[in-house]
């Protein structure tokens, strides 16, 4: 049995985190039933991530990756196999259809997808726009500000 977490105190003391808190609340309520295909999420750098999915039994043409806003969707649909004379006594390699969704943080972009030996690797990078990056603000003293505010008029002295 899962413990229920009350996020109400966080809503009262934080500003702008409502989307994240709603996602946490929703994730704690939804039971995870489907665990196929297995996957790993790896942090490879400060702003770099990789999702590795084991999709044995599927070909590259059977996989579709789409990113829409802050959601990454990986879909696998195996093309129907032609009838063969082979009779399976045990079929343990899953080739079933799946759709796996990943909620992405703001400014996450898929930079690469690579499929090799039944392993799908999706590389992601957080690309924060220049306007949103931290910047240093210059501090001026009040005396410098006062001098700038009052224009100084200098009289020219003409030689007689």
From TrEMBL:
<comment type="similarity">
    <text>Belongs to the small heat shock protein (HSP20) family.</text>
</comment>
<protein>
    <submittedName>
        <fullName>Molecular chaperone IbpA</fullName>
    </submittedName>
</protein>
<feature type="domain" description="SHSP">
    <location>
        <begin position="30"/>
        <end position="142"/>
    </location>
</feature>
<dbReference type="InterPro" id="IPR008978">
    <property type="entry name" value="HSP20-like_chaperone"/>
</dbReference>
<keyword id="KW-0346">Stress response</keyword>
<dbReference type="InterPro" id="IPR002068">
    <property type="entry name" value="A-crystallin/Hsp20_dom"/>
</dbReference>
<dbReference type="InterPro" id="IPR037913">
    <property type="entry name" value="ACD_IbpA/B"/>
</dbReference>
<dbReference type="Pfam" id="PF00011">
    <property type="entry name" value="HSP20"/>
</dbReference>
């Amino acid at each position: 049995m899962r413990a229920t977490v009350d996020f109400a105190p966080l809503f009262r003391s934080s500003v702008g985190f409502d989307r994240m808190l709603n996602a946490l609340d929703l994730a704690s309520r939804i039971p995870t039933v489907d665990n196929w295909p297995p996957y790993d999420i790896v942090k490879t750098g400060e702003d770099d991530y990789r999702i590795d999915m084991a999709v044995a039994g599927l070909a590259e043409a059977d996989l579709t990756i789409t990113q829409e806003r802050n959601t990454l969707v990986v879909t696998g649909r195996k093309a129907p196999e032609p009838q063969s004379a082979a009779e399976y006594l045990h079929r343990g390699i899953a080739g079933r259809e799946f759709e796996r969704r990943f909620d992405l943080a703001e400014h996450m972009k898929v930079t690469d997808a690579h499929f090799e030996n039944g392993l799908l690797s999706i590389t992601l990078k957080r690309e924060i726009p220049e306007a949103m990056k931290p910047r240093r603000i210059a501090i001026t003293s009040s005396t410098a500000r006062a001098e700038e505010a009052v224009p100084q008029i200098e009289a020219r002295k003409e030689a007689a």
